[in-house]
Write a structure and sequence with these properties.
single chain, 480 residues, alpha+beta, Creatine Amidinohydrolase, Chain A, domain 1, Creatine Amidinohydrolase, 2 domains, 4-stranded antiparallel sheet, 40% helix
Length: 480
């Protein structure tokens, strides 16, 4: 009989679940955090004024989610909100609709003194007053800073948002302007004497180094991601669909209070493993397959990104052990080389020295695995990139680090892949790394990676062992 360790972990999840945020203003951070961020903006815009527009409501019965940069500076979760940060007067004012479908959605943030107290803003006024404020700025002719790139709303990053806006603009059967381009045009009409400048570089620079509060939220998101993967590992068995493992993780994510996914679930089994962003989720786990599981939540506007590999039947074959072990040791050569005040290029150089020793000592029995490992090492040796992976924060591919060397408060992942091309067999792990004043902390280190630990975890009971029988899967992949 498998031990019921899974239920203990579920209690751990419940004990660490985030308190649900208010629907109008987040309580994840104290108002002072947002006030400090706005003060940094004021310092950098001088005599100018920063103006941001919040996200619009969704054209569906779907929960509202604020765009990342508006949330970062205000914490306000009201559709079509506007924010003015004045560098000269050192005042910040939000303009919001007087109410937002309260009869349907419940109480909302209302303009007035109480909203100002709650948010830490100098004033929260009705949205109709924004036009007069911009007109006054137009008379003064002061610089106006506003974001130029497309907003990010969750389950994605700036790269995807910008690419979509560009594709729409260049599509001969579309050609629409982005919300940002349309907003900039409106500002130019309302304040023709003002120079319009891009606020995004200032915000990206600020977001590169995470505060103590941000790190705590990323840590919770990583805990949720890791525990979700562990539940999928416990439940995995031949005959299941990839999407059924996804469901295990989503149960944990929601238990933590997640708003949604940080990105679509990358659950790949068998021949799907070489594809870094495979997300169809419909393949059936087969005996002898490896499963690559890469999934994380969007939790309080911050995300994580963790990947693990495990055998569908709970036991690695001898060949899988060889492939996994050499990859893991080379991967760990990078992890153990990461340090504060060191450039990623130097970290990679140090790691390759370790990799060369590992390759000499490793008892290869399979030439294909040796060739894949050799290619992996040479790719690291020849790389000119000053990046080890990608940053993580409000977006899964977050803003650049902003410095040549790793500094305290930087958060990023590494996820180098090793592939046996002719067999369509891939291997990729991923961990979330926080740079501290004394070195590096692996936030996802609690998620097993050593073979014995993975197999021991998979021998434990899973969610499905503790629940009533689920309905069977239909032949077309649906449910009866």
């Amino acid at each position: 009989m498998k031990p019921r360790v899974s239920l203990i972990l579920l209690l751990l999840v419940l004990s660490h679940a985030a308190v649900a945020a208010q629907s109008v203003f987040t309580d994840v951070f104290p108002p002072e955090e947002f006030t400090a961020r706005r003060a940094l903006v004021m310092d950098q815009i001088g005599d100018g004024v920063a103006i941001l527009q919040g996200a619009a409501e969704k054209p569906a019965e779907a929960a509202f989610r604020q765009n990342n940069r508006f949330f970062y500076l205000s914490g306000i979760e009201v559709p079509r909100a506007l924010l003015v940060i004045d560098g000269r007067t050192k005042r910040s004012v939000a303009y919001i609709p007087p109410s937002y479908r309260e009869r349907a959605y419940g109480p909302g943030l209302r303009p007035g003194a109480e909203a100002a107290r709650l948010t830490g803003l100098d004033a929260v006024l009705e949205r109709d007053a924004f036009a007069a404020a911009v007109a006054a700025l137009g008379v003064e002719g002061r610089p106006i800073y506003t974001p130029a790139s497309a907003e990010v709303l969750g389950s994605g990053s700036r790269g995807e948002a910008v690419a979509l806006a560009r594709a729409n603009a260049n599509d001969p059967w579309d050609g629409r302007a982005s919300r940002e381009d349309a907003f900039i045009a409106k500002l130019k009409d309302a304040a023709p004497r003002s120079e319009i400048r891009d606020l995004d570089p200032i915000l990206r620079g600020m977001r590169a180094t995470k505060s103590a509060h941000e790190i705590e939220v990323i840590r919770r998101a990583t805990n949720a991601a890791g525990l979700g993967i562990m539940e999928a590992m416990r439940d995995a068995k031949p005959g299941m669909a990839e999407y059924e493992l996804q469901a295990d993780a989503e149960f944990v994510f929601k238990t933590f209070g997640a708003q949604g996914p940080a990105y679509f679930a990358l659950v790949a089994t068998g021949a799907n493993t070489p594809y870094s962003h495979y997300h169809k989720g419909t393949a059936i786990l087969a005996d002898g397959d490896l499963v690559q599981f890469d999934y994380a939540p969007d939790l309080n506007y911050y995300v994580s990104d963790v990947t693990r590999v495990f055998p569908a039947n709970g036991r690695f074959t001898p060949r899988q052990r060889e492939f996994y072990t050499i990859y893991l040791r080379l991967y760990q050569a990078i992890l153990t080389s990461i340090d504060v005040n060191v450039a990623p290029r130097e970290i990679r150089r140090r790691a390759v020295v370790k990799m060369d020793s590992i390759m000499v000592a490793f008892p290869f029995t399979d030439e294909k695995i040796r060739a894949a490992a050799t290619t992996f090492v040479e790719r690291q040796r020849s790389s000119n990139s000053n990046s080890l992976g990608h940053t993580v924060g409000m977006e899964v591919h977050d803003v650049p680090l902003g410095s040549e060397t790793l500094q305290p408060g930087h958060v990023f992942t590494i996820e180098p892949a090793m592939v046996i091309e002719d067999e369509r067999l891939g291997m990729r792990l991923e961990d979330v790394i926080l740079i501290t004043p004394t070195g590096a902390e692996i936030l996802s280190a609690f998620v097993p990676v050593e073979i014995d630990d993975v197999e021991a975890l998979m021998a434990q009971s899973g969610l499905r062992d503790a629940q009533i029988r689920l309905p069977g899967r239909m032949p077309d992949g649906g449910r009866d």
